[in-house]
Write a structure and sequence with these properties.
CATH architecture of the largest domain: 2-Layer Sandwich
Number of helices: 4
Strand order of the largest sheet: 1-3-2
Structural class: alpha+beta
Radius of gyration: 26 Å
Strand content: 5-15%
CATH superfamily of the largest domain: Hypothetical protein rpa1041
Order of helices and strands: HHEHEEH
Low-confidence stretches: none
CATH class of the largest domain: Alpha Beta
Mean pLDDT: 82
CATH topology of the largest domain: Alpha-Beta Plaits
Helix content: 40-55%
Largest sheet: 3 strands, antiparallel
Shape: elongated
C-alpha cells in the first residue's frame, strides 16, 4: 500500500495514460502525410464490369459529354458517378436506377 491506497487501483490508473500514448503514436502514423506509409493502394482503371454493384450506362466516348450526362442525372436525383475505365469514361449507376437513368438520358 502506497500511502493508504490500494496498489492495484493506483497502478491501473496509469493504464489510461499509457493507452492514450499508444493511441497518439498509432494515429500519427496512420494519418501522417509523409510518403513512408505501410499501406499503399494503387489507383488504376478497370473494365466496366469490375465495379461491383454499379452498372455501366452507355456513355459517349467524349469526357465532356459524359460530364453533361452526369449533371443531367444528378438534376433528376439519380445517384451516378463518372469514372475512367479501360474503355474510356463511363457513367455508373446502381442496378435499381439503371432503367430510369436510361430513360432520362434518352429524353
Amino acid at each position: 500500500m502506497l500511502g493508504g491506497i490500494d496498489n492495484a487501483l493506483f497502478l491501473s490508473s496509469f493504464g489510461g495514460f499509457v493507452a492514450v500514448g499508444i493511441l497518439i503514436f498509432f494515429l500519427k502514423w496512420a494519418f501522417s502525410s509523409n510518403d513512408k506509409k505501410l499501406i499503399i493502394t494503387p489507383i488504376s482503371a478497370g473494365k466496366k464490369d469490375e465495379y461491383g454493384l454499379l452498372k455501366a450506362l452507355p456513355t459517349p466516348g467524349n469526357y465532356i459529354e459524359a460530364e453533361m450526362a452526369l449533371l443531367k442525372l444528378k438534376d433528376s436525383n439519380i445517384k451516378a458517378t463518372l469514372t475512367q475505365t479501360l474503355q474510356g469514361p463511363s457513367l455508373m449507376v446502381f442496378e435499381r436506377d439503371f432503367s430510369i437513368a436510361l430513360a432520362i438520358l434518352k429524353s
